[in-house]
Design brief:
This protein is α/β, with parallel strands linked by helices. It has helices at 29-41, 55-66, 100-110, 131-140, 174-185, 202-209, 244-255, 275-282, 327-336, 356-366, 398-408, 430-436; strands at 9-13, 19-24, 45-49, 70-73, 77-81, 94-95, 116-120, 143-146, 155-158, 162-163, 166-168, 187-188, 190-194, 214-217, 220-224, 237-239, 260-268, 286-295, 298-306, 314-315, 339-343, 370-374, 377-382, 391-393, 415-418, 440-444. It binds shikimate-3-phosphate (S3P).
């Protein structure tokens, strides 16, 4: 069932099969897209192993092709021949599909070029806030018009001579930070970014790999721009680690199944991404990390989880940016744990591929969980029986689809999930991987 028929729904029956399993997860979505952008900019060939062939990353790659990069997929590796800072004018709008990362980061890159480009995407993407990138890019000197209804995409960008700015970010966001850093590469003078809390730092690590100097102190990043000629990046060879955000689904499923032991190999363990592991430890899960040689600047390791029972916890404060994408599956963990789980300080969840607070609360409620919605999170009373026999709509949000699929494994009866083709944006092999753990997953009408 590698490719799901788009018009069909998925029916997930309860239960996994106890046993000992090993698996790996596809490449990191955030890192893959950053690599596509920088390899497309570099001079000469880059050789990429582990690039995520999910829809988001393929859309970002196609956008770079439309801007002049050449891409060859050998199956084993992806070979990207960069433009050497000579992006070309595309004839039509670039469609980034569902990818907020691709859109926001590419907007930053395009701001440095004297091109006129429109970035667009699917209905979810075109409903996400884009003023957060418009503001700094305009301060730097680019023209950025948000032609959607409410400060949203399609985004028209006319770039050119940029100047460095000092920008205090209103929210911790790796996408906004990376957007400004990419624009800052092509600016005259210094770009200074002040972050209210630390967000994932894949862009900074990739800059370091490519020899772009960055000064970093607590909450402050400084980059000396290279002006309109841009940095002289050479093609590079890179390995992309497994995506911890994808690993999270099977980790939680296994952690809640006594008698199941699962090792997920080669997972990226960037300190800005691994807060889910601390939360699972707090909840009483047994997760052992076996470090492996890193993938360049990105640490990596194997995760072994032993199934058992979980207890509720509180999730909030500075750890939120480091597990923002894992909150839907952690809400499932909270529903399966005994006692109360509180998620707070996570208002940003309302601006993801769907309003993940509202949708998760609705779906958990439909499955009989006592959960209340707050402005910036939810409060879950876990450990009660999980009602099955329901139909849930994933609202085209991949992390909702996969979280509710895991929840369905613990229900009293099968659950039907609709609008789940979005899973292919980040984890095309998800249904197969669930089946490898013994899940009964079928297409249905
Ligand atoms: C991402 C950053 C996060 C995350 C998104 C990917 C990135 O968004 O939710 O899935 O690749 O930089 P924000 O930085 O907007 O919080």
């Amino acid at each position: 069932m590698a490719v799901m028929n788009k018009s069909k729904a998925i029916r997930v029956a309860p239960g996994l099969t106890c046993g000992v399993y090993r698996m790996s997860v596809p490449g990191d979505k955030s890192i893959s897209q950053r690599v596509a952008l920088l390899a497309g900019l570099a001079r000469g060939e880059s050789v990429v192993t582990g690039y995520l062939r999910g829809e988001d990353c393929l859309n970002t790659l196609r956008a770079m092709e439309r801007l002049g990069a050449r891409v060859r997929d050998t199956g084993e590796t992806l070979i990207i021949e960069g433009t050497g800072n000579a992006l070309v004018q595309p004839n039509n709008p670039l469609n980034l599909g569902n990818s907020g990362t691709g859109t926001r980061l590419l907007a930053g890159l395009l701001a440095g070029f004297p091109l006129s480009v429109t970035l667009t995407g699917d209905s979810s993407l075109c409903s996400r806030p884009m003023r957060r990138i418009q503001e700094p890019l305009e301060q730097m000197g680019a023209t950025v018009r948000l032609t959607g209804e409410k400060g949203t995409a399609p985004i028209f960008i006319q770039g050119g001579a940029l100047k460095g700015i000092t920008y205090r970010m209103p929210m911790p966001s790796a996408q906004v930070k990376s957007c400004v850093l990419l624009a800052g590469l092509f600016a005259e003078g210094r770009t200074v970014l002040l972050e209210p809390a630390k967000s994932r730092d894949h862009t900074e690590r990739l800059f370091r790999t490519l020899g772009v100097p960055l000064e970093m102190t607590d909450g402050r990043l400084e980059l000396e721009g290279f002006g309109t000629k841009g940095p002289d990046l050479r093609g590079f060879t890179i390995r992309i680690p497994g995506d911890i955000s994808s690993a999270a689904f099977c980790l939680v499923a296994a952690a809640c199944t006594p008698g199941l032991r699962l090792t997920i190999e080669g997972v990226g363990l960037n300190p800005g991404r691994e807060a889910i592991l601390s939360v699972l430890h707090r909840m009483g899960a047994s997760v052992v990390i076996t470090p492996r040689d890193g993938a360049g600047e990105e640490p990596m390791g194997d995760l072994t989880v032993e199934g058992g029972t979980l207890q509720g916890t509180e999730i909030g404060g500075p750890e939120i940016p480091s597990l923002i994408d894992e909150l839907p599956i952690l809400a499932v963990a909270g529903a399966l744990a005994s006692g109360e789980t509180v998620i707070r300080d996570a208002g940003e969840l309302r601006f993801k591929e769907s309003d993940r607070i509202a949708v998760m609360v609705r779906h958990l409620t439909a499955m009989g969980v006592q959960v209340s919605e707050t402005t910036d999170g939810m409060v879950i009373q876990g450990g009660t029986p999980i009602r099955g026999g329901v139909e849930l709509d994933a609202h085209g949000d991949h992390r909702i689809a996969m979280s509710m699929a895991v929840m369905a494994l613990f229900a009293e009866e099968p659950v039907t999930l609709r609008q789940v083709e979005c899973v292919s944006t980040s984890y095309p092999a998800f249904w197969n991987d669930l089946k490898r753990l013994g899940a009964q997953v079928h297409e249905t009408e």
